[in-house]
Design the sequence.
């Protein structure tokens, strides 16, 4: 298990740390671990992502992503669901969806 460092890290230092489960988020210099999702949370997330995508993906309006790290400003967050407007989805040199999303989602959903 990776523990959050006791001294303050920069965003760049934070991003070099290995990913953990549940994920850590970096918000304005603070490192916060997300709670471990449980059954009801997982069920809602598992149903909500395809429900959003069935409406917005066919017409290339937007796309919903579960547990996607988004790094922007002075934060790096992992929303339960991140939704991006279609033309804002980062692409790699082959035109495929990029691995790194260095921008804020258009819509974030946190399941409580």
Sequence:
């Amino acid at each position: 298990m990776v523990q959050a460092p006791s001294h303050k890290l920069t965003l760049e230092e934070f991003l070099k740390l290995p990913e953990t489960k549940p994920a850590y988020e970096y918000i304005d210099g603070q490192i916060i671990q997300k709670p471990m999702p449980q059954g009801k949370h997982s069920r809602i997330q598992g149903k909500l992502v395809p429900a959003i995508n069935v409406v917005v993906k066919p017409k290339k309006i937007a796309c919903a992503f579960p547990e996607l790290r988004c790094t922007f400003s002075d934060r790096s967050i992992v929303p339960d669901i991140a939704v991006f407007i279609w033309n804002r989805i980062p692409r790699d040199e082959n035109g495929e969806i990029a691995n790194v999303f260095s921008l804020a989602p258009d819509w974030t959903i946190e399941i409580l």
Summary: Residues 27 and 75 are 4 Å apart (CA to CA). The mean pLDDT is 93. The chain has one domain: 20-109. The domain at 20-109 is CATH 3.90.1570.10 (tt1808, chain A).
